Amino acid sequence: xxxxxxxxxxxxxxxxxxxxxxxxxxxxxxxxxxxxxxxxxxxxxxxxxxxxxxxxxxxxxxxxxxxxxxxxxxxxxxxxxxxxxxx
Length: 87
Prior knowledge:
- By secondary structure, this protein is α+β, with helices and mostly antiparallel strands.
- It has one domain (18-86).
- The protein has helices at residues 14-20, 27-34, 38-48, 62-86; strands spanning 24-26, 51-54, 57-61.
- The protein has a three-stranded antiparallel β-sheet.
- The protein is globular.
- The mean pLDDT is 83.
């Protein structure tokens, strides 16, 4: 979303803006922001190719993870539309 926050600025609060400024986040921050468990974030970030392990700490590249979530959501919405059309 770099450079595009103004497009949805009416929907953002201070927490969203602070989180969007980070390039990487840890699993705990992801749990607090996305509302997903650390185990789920770790799995999804791995699938997205956005998971990095530094020593014993895991970091997630935010832009790649967000892109993965958008793609996954888009695919699920397409499946719902297709099942609705078939009904």
